[in-house]
Amino acid sequence: MPELAVDASKFAGMSEEQARTFPGRTVVGVEISQAAAAAMPKMISTDAHVMEPEELWMELPKRLQDHLPKVPFRNSPPGATDPHLRLRDQDTDGVAAEILFPNYGMALFGIDDIETQQESFKLYNDWAHEFCSADPRRLYAAPLVSVYDIDAGIKEMHRGHDMGLKGAMIWQVADPRLPFTSDHYEPLWAACAEAKQPVICHILTGHSYIKTGQKGGVQGIKDAVNSKTNDSANTLFDFIFSGAFDRHPDLKLLMAESEIGWLPFLLQQWDYYFERFRKTRDLPIDRKPSEIFSEHVYGTFLEDYVGTRFFPWWGEKNCMWSNDYPHFNMTFPHSRQVVEHHLHGLSDDKRQRLTRDNAIELFRLDL
Hints:
Elements lengths: L15 H6 L12 H6 L3 E7 L4 H4 L4 H4 L17 H11 L1 E7 L2 H4 L6 H19 L6 E3 L8 H13 L5 E3 L15 H10 L3 E4 L14 H25 L2 H4 L5 E4 L6 H15 L11 H8 E5 L3 H4 L10 E3 L13 H9 L4 H16 L4
Parallel strand pairs: 1-2, 2-3, 4-5, 5-6, 6-7, 7-8
C-alpha cells in the first residue's frame, strides 16, 4: 500500500523536518488528478483540534494550577496555534470549515477539582473565541462545559454561543456519581434542545481509562481499541435507553472521533433485545434504538474503511467526515485522497452529505 510523499511546501509555515514528522494518513493507492481534486466540493471537518498555548493555563490562580493534569507536550504544525496559518492549511487541503476541539483541554474533563475545571473551561472558551475570530465562517470551536454544577454549565454554554461557539462539549465518560441516566443532566438537555445545538461527547474525555495515562505494550493497544470503543458504546446506550431523546425531541448528540463501523452492529443488537424484552420488562423507551439514533445521533469517521462500506444503505444522514488535524493520524494534507478512497462509488449527493451538508445542518453553520 503506497504512501503519498509529503511535500513540505504544502504545510503552511512548516519546515521540511516538521513535515516529515507529520506525514498524515497513509493513502491506499488512490490517485486523483489536480483537476479532479479542485473540482471536489470543499469539505467540512467535524472533528479537528487546536493546540492551546501553555501560558493560557498560567492565567489560573496558583492554587488552581496545582490541580492541572500533567499531559505530554505534542509537537504540532503551526496551523494548530496560528489561525491564519490554519486557514491556509484548510485551503491546501480542500477544507471549507472545521469544528474545533481542544487538545490539552480534553484532559481537563477528568480532573476532580470542580473549580479548576470550571475556570479552565472559561479561559479556553475565551481563547477559542479569539482563535476563531480570524474567520468566524471557517473556524467554529465548541465551548467546553463543566457539568458538575449544571446551572453554571448551562450559563457557560450560553456565553459560548453568544461568542459564536457551537454545540456543548461535555465529558464522554461521566463521573460515576453522575451517570448519564440520572436526572442531573435534564436541564442541560433541555437547554441544548432549545438552542438547537448538539451535545458533543469526544473520545478520551472524562473519567475513562485515559485519566490515569496511556499504557504501553499490548495493554495500550487494547485500551486504544477495546476500551475506547466500549466507552463510546456505553455513553450512546445511556443516552438512548434513558429516554433523553424522547423527552427532548430537538436534542442532538455528536459522538466525536469514535469512528462508525461498530454502530450498525450494536444498533442491530440493541433493537433485537429491545424487541425481545419490551413486553416483559419496564423499558424507558417505546421505539427501536435504531429509530432514535437515526433522528438524534451523529458520528464522525476519520479512516474507517469498514464503517464507510455501510454507506450505500446506512448512515448517510448521521455520519460526517473529519480530518483530526493537527494530530499525528490526521488526513492533512491528503484529505481529498483519503475521502476518495473511502467514498468512491457513492453518488455526488451522498458524498456531499457526508463531507459537508450534515455538518452544516447539525451545527447550523453560516459558511
